[in-house]
Write a structure and sequence with these properties.
Chain B: GO terms for molecular function: magnesium ion binding; pyruvate dehydrogenase (acetyl-transferring) activity. Chain B: It comes from Planotetraspora kaengkrachanensis. The structure holds 2 protein chains of 2 kinds. By secondary structure, chain A is of the alpha/beta class. Chain A contains 12 helices and 9 strands. In chain A, α7 links the parallel β4 and β5. The N and C termini of chain A lie far apart (about 45 Å). By secondary structure, chain B is α/β, with parallel strands linked by helices. Chain B is built from 10 helices and 13 strands. In chain B, β12, α8 and β13 form a beta-alpha-beta unit. The longest helix of chain B has 15 residues. Classes of the chains: A alpha/beta, B alpha/beta. At the A-B interface, loops of A face α3 and α9 of B. The structure holds thiamine diphosphate (TPP) and magnesium ion. Thiamine diphosphate sits at the interface of chains A and B.
């Protein structure tokens, strides 16, 4: 899944807004690992380091009427939908202003038409139900669900694919295939391919091999429009790279594998494409996140009654 | 020795002594060795019988039942016990039923291991204690890990039972020491009930209060026993059964008779609890001898929140037990 030749060499293009968001998510995730390292966070978290560009690319293809289902690695999914790093951090830290009162934490978030939960595979059938609702009541809107490669081990995924294909429901499945599930390489947990599985249900599949936002959007725009037009569900599979641990301090991959993932890091590729603008944006987002961490850490605990 | 190490050693011992034994689960292979490191070293020693699987709780639990159907012994690790809900059908409708539904007894040697409970800030879908949902299923036994029970003996008992077992492991215990009940108390095995451990001050049959609790509660109950003794001069005897269901209250009666109050403490949330099953059995056996009904201590009727301060407010704490004992002893 390493990008080769032309793909790597082609410049990465992002406007200022996209770049700011990419870097916001990056520094948000780094800040979380740092907080954990200093013993200031409770529980666990899964960062999307290396995969930030996936929800950022998609956000311009989605509308406010669409429902989005994030997953366990969902901070980027949330931040690409809401410019609310303080609310998310407060949720993770259990502080005042938390999106869900500190009850849900990193993995369980509901806000407007965004929802995530921590049990793999559960969200697909639910998203199918949402898609059914949208098809009747808000034609043109869709349900978008993010899942990892490993989550294709769950039977619920196939029950949902069958339903949405049979009933031509507006479901967009975004597969973040980072080649690993927790500690298990995809090659040791998936027989066949995501493409063949989707196609077996008569569901259209599109593979994305680049982290260039403009290319991704160009490729996907007509396909997503077809989902909206009632032509049935779509599976988009991103070949992506997890450059951090699964959660925290639990990366048992060999250094060579991690190095290969890092070579594909959008952060490096975008940095090389436009160093000065990138550096400015990077500094700005780092400073923004630092300030948010300071501000949220000083807040009182969230309040909630069972 | 830590409880987690004891459990790991039990699995090593099982695979070593029983060539038909398998251990199956997600991310259990070395070098990772499982989300809680309980399977460390197993796959290196027994590569063909320790299988890392896709994320397929229902599938792998059914797979274990298939091995058991052929006479093998199968241990499944569910990464977080919460996900055993995905395997509920295989456990309840296939494995447990198969023991008797074909008209003659069919041994099904399988154990579904469930790292359980809160206190670690993992949030609502990674912190539950689902024991109560498996109580009262014909053919199914429910066990719980305890710092007072050697895991190898418990595994031998589960596999010898001939029926499928769900084994709940309070995650907090993994890093606790085996057989640690502090400096004030002693522990032994309840006479007449090999699988019930007992923690007491001097004379177990002369305690003011008897607390019945599964292994995951031992720390909290012992802490409460300590504060009750030092602050209130109240003596308690703790009974810890390894098998939660089926539950035989008969051997407990001599200890219960001497007490002014009986409590059942568990981490599961209120409503339809294991404790109410235990209480019912005790009521039937000794209603007329009880000063008051058996008291239940459990977590609040709530999801388990993620934030530490909110989680604490929902889950049973040692102070919850302390207060409940005083309440039960009030005249
Ligand atoms: C039903 C269920 N089983 C197991 C887990 C534990 N778990 C959380 S994330 C994860 C790996 C998921 O891998 P993948 O879908 O590839 O997503 P990635 O973590 O790579 O983003 C596992 C096994 C879970 N959350 N839910
Ligand atoms: Mg993955």
């Amino acid at each position: 899944m390493t990008e080769t030749g032309a793909a790597v060499l082609s410049a990465r293009r992002a406007d200022d807004d996209d770049l700011a968001l990419l870097l916001l998510i990056r520094h948000f995730e780094l800040a979380l690992l740092d907080l954990f390292g200093r013993g200031e966070l409770n529980g666990t978290t899964h960062t999307c380091l290396g995969q930030e560009y996936v929800p950022v690319a998609l956000r311009r293809l989605l509308t406010g009427a669409d429902h989005v289902f994030g997953n366990h690695r969902g901070h980027g999914h949330y931040l690409a939908r809401f410019d609310d790093p303080a609310g998310l951090l407060a949720e993770i830290m259990g502080r005042e202003g938390a999106v869900c009162g500190g009850v849900g934490g990193s993995q369980h978030i509901l806000r407007d038409r965004y929802v995530s939960t921590g049990v793999q595979g559960e969200s697909l059938p639910v998203a199918a139900g949402v898609a059914l609702h949208l098809k009747r009541t808000e034609p043109g809107a869709l349900a978008c669900v993010f899942i990892g490669d490993g989550t294709w081990g769950e039977g619920a995924v196939y029950e949902a694919l069958n339903l949405v294909s049979l009933w031509r429901l507006p479901l967009l499945v975004i597969v973040e295939n980072n080649g690993i599930a927790q500690s298990t390489p995809t090659t040791r947990q998936m027989a066949g391919t995501v493409r063949a599985r989707a196609e077996a249900f008569g569901v259209r599949h599109h593979g994305v091999e680049t982290s260039d936002l403009a290319t991704i959007r160009d490729e996907l725009a007509p396909l997503v429009a077809a989902v909206r037009a009632g032509e049935g569900p779509l599976v988009v599979e991103f070949a992506t790279h997890r450059i951090g641990p699964h959660s925290k301090g639990d990366d048992t991959r060999d250094p060579e594998t991690v190095r290969r993932a890092r070579d594909n890091d959008w952060y490096r590729l975008y940095g090389e494409a436009d160093p000065e603008r990138f550096e400015r944006a990077d500094q700005a987002q780092r400073a923004r996140v630092d300030a948010i961490v300071r501000e949220v850490s000083a807040r009182p605990p969230s309040r909630w009654r069972p | 020795m830590r409880v987690g190490e004891n459990l790991n050693a039990a699995l090593h011992g099982l695979l070593e002594s029983d060539p038909s034994a398998y251990v199956i689960g997600e991310d259990i292979l070395d070098p990772y060795g499982g989300a809680f490191k309980i399977t460390k070293g197993l796959s290196t020693r027994f590569p063909d019988r320790v299988l890392g699987t896709p994320i397929s709780e229902s599938g792998i639990t059914g797979l274990a039942a298939g091995l058991a159907l052929c006479g093998d012994a199968a241990v499944v690790e569910i990464m977080f016990g919460d996900f055993v809900a995905l395997a509920f059908d295989q456990i309840v409708n296939f494995a447990a039923k198969s023991v008797t539904m074909y008209g003659s007894r069919l041994p099904i040697r399988m154990v579904v291991r469930c790292p359980t409970g809160g206190g670690r800030g993992y949030g609502p879908t990674h912190s539950q204690s689902l024991q109560k949902h498996f109580v009262g299923v014909p053919g199914l036994s429910v066990y719980e890990m305890s710092p007072l029970h050697d895991n190898r003996a418990v595994f031998d008992a589960m596999l010898a039972s001939g029926g499928p077992c769900v084994f709940f492991e309070d995650k907090i215990l993994y890093t606790r020491r085996m057989n640690d009940v502090g400096d004030l108390f002693r522990h032994d095995v309840l006479p007449g009930a090999e699988d019930v451990a007992r923690v007491f001050l001097e004379d177990p049959e002369a305690a003011d209060c008897v607390i019945i609790a599964p292994g995951g509660m031992v720390d909290r109950v012992v802490t409460a026993m300590r504060s009750l003794l030092l602050e209130q001069e109240v003596t308690c005897c703790l009974l810890v059964p390894s098998r939660l269901y089926p539950f035989d209250a008969e051997p407990l009666l001599p200890v219960l008779r001497g007490a002014r109050a009986v409590l059942v403490a568990e981490e599961g949330t209120a409503g339809g609890t294991w404790g109410s099953e235990v209480a019912h059995r005790i009521h039937r056996l000794m209603w007329n001898d009880l000063r008051r009904p058996v008291a239940l201590v459990n977590s609040a009727d709530s999801v388990i929140p993620t934030a530490a301060h909110l989680e604490r407010a929902v889950l049973v704490q040692d102070s919850t037990i302390h207060d409940a004992v005083l309440e039960a002893l009030r005249d």
